[in-house]
Structures are given as structure tokens and as C-alpha cells.
TrEMBL record:
Feature: compositional bias, Low complexity: 183-200
Organism: Glutinoglossum americanum
Protein name (database record): AB hydrolase-1 domain-containing protein
Gene3D superfamilies, alphabetized: alpha/beta hydrolase
Residue span of region Disordered: 179-201
Amino acid sequence: MTDIHTVTSRDGTAIGYRQLGQGPGLVILHGAMESSQSHIQLAEALSPTFTVYLPDRRGRGQSGPYGSPFTIQTEVDDLSALLAKTAASNILGVSSGAIIALQACLQLPTIQRAAIFEPPLGIDRDSATQSLERYDAEMANGKTSAALVTAMRATEMGPPIFKYVPRWLLEQLTTMAMAHEGSSSPSPQSPDDSNSTTTPANMRALAPTLHYDFQISLSMSDDEAISNLSKVTTEVLLIGGSKSPTYLRSGLDRLEKVLPNINKRVVFAGLGHGATGNSDRRGQPALVAEELRGFFGE
């Protein structure tokens, strides 16, 4: 049984979240192009042992808009409000959600354990800024497929063959994929979102949120920001996939050198950046849940 709730963040924005299971509280903070539904199978696998909370980050599901000004602190405040309401002390952060989780560990002593999955750390700032500018221009001109391709190439998402596929063809394939999704996927802020179980909001609806995920990655794009993570005292589990892009695996290497309280690092053989997600998105939720139970249950 999944319940839908909301909590009010510091700036008055409503943050929606799903709740299921029983036991100690565990928050799963999703990454880019995802919503609370993206990890529902992982939550179900963990639900016999934990009360799992799946928030929709801003701009998605039951949550309010990003607002202005927006910084990573905005998302830390959202997470803080959820932790205060639920008394949860465990968190899994995925991709850009992992950057938010790390920043939260610096500020929120109530977080006792954090599992960190492939945060996009230390990206090339100039390249990422150029990609963001191009993405913003394409979105402003209604070229959603082109903007998604720009983001996909910048983050090295998609099969390796995508590096060799002409851009015009990638845009055409993306347009076809969005058309295929059609109205079967919920929009990011649909009133009927609570009726959906495993289907994340569709690509077209989630595309505008990428601007903010770029911002979050850029906030952790220099050596000083990463060095500052040496102040994190939370016990940390580092997680990654053997098939993920090199820069994501390198990011975990950097965390191994700077975080003072690492429990261990786990690499899932044969899995990529979607490892924690639902099985229809190339995830292995049962495998990930087994590792998380060991860490959070100790």
C-alpha cells in the first residue's frame, strides 16, 4: 500500500512524497529525468524492513515549482522538511539526488547513514556551461528533442553507439520516443499522479527539469566544493555500476579519497547508471535492495 503525502518546505512550497513499508525511515532521492515512481520497485523490495519515503523533487508529481531564486540549498531545505516530518535518518541519493544528499549531510546532523549512487561530481565546468546554454536555447525555441539530445550527449547517457549516431537521427529517434509515450505516462505535476505506480513522468514533461539538474551538478564542479565534503561525518556507502560512464566512476574515486567515514564501496557488475531504478529502465532493484538492507540495517 502506497500513501501520498505532502510536506511544506522552508519557502512555503509543497513537496509531495510516497510512503510505503514499515520500520526505520529511509528516503530515496531520485536523479535527473526521474520522479518518485522511478524507484518504486526498489522501495517495494525494501518495504518489509524500512518505511520508505519517495519524494518528488520540485517540478514533478505532487511537488510545487522550482521558484526563484533556485540553488542546491533549495533542495536541501526540501529534504530537511521531509526528514523533520518523518524522523527518517537514512537516505539514498541517486545521481544529482546524490549531490543533494551529500550537501545535506554537511548541514543536517539527523542523517546517520547515506548511500551515495554515482553523483556527477567534478564535471568540466566550461563544457557543462556550454551544454546548458545550448539546452536552454533549444528549450526556449520549443525544440525539446534537440534539448534532450544535448543533455544526453553532455551527460554521456544512452548506449555507447549513441556517440556515433548523427545528431539529426538522435533527435528524430527522441521525437518518436516521446510520441510513443504519448499520454500513457503521467505529466510531472498531474493531479492524477497518485494513481500511477511504476511509470515515471514522461520525457517531454520532465525535460524542463534538466536545467536545474545542470545547476546542481555545476554547484559541485570545482575542487574546493569536493574538498569541503571532508567535513561530512555521516557514515557513507558508495555505490556504482561497472558500465556507467567513466566520469561517474571517477567521481566515486574522488569521494573515496575525501569522505572520512566510508563504510564500503560497491560496484554492481554489468549495470550502468540506471541500476537503482525500475526494471523497465534497466534497473536491478532486488540486487540493490539487498545491499542497502545490509548497510542501513547494521
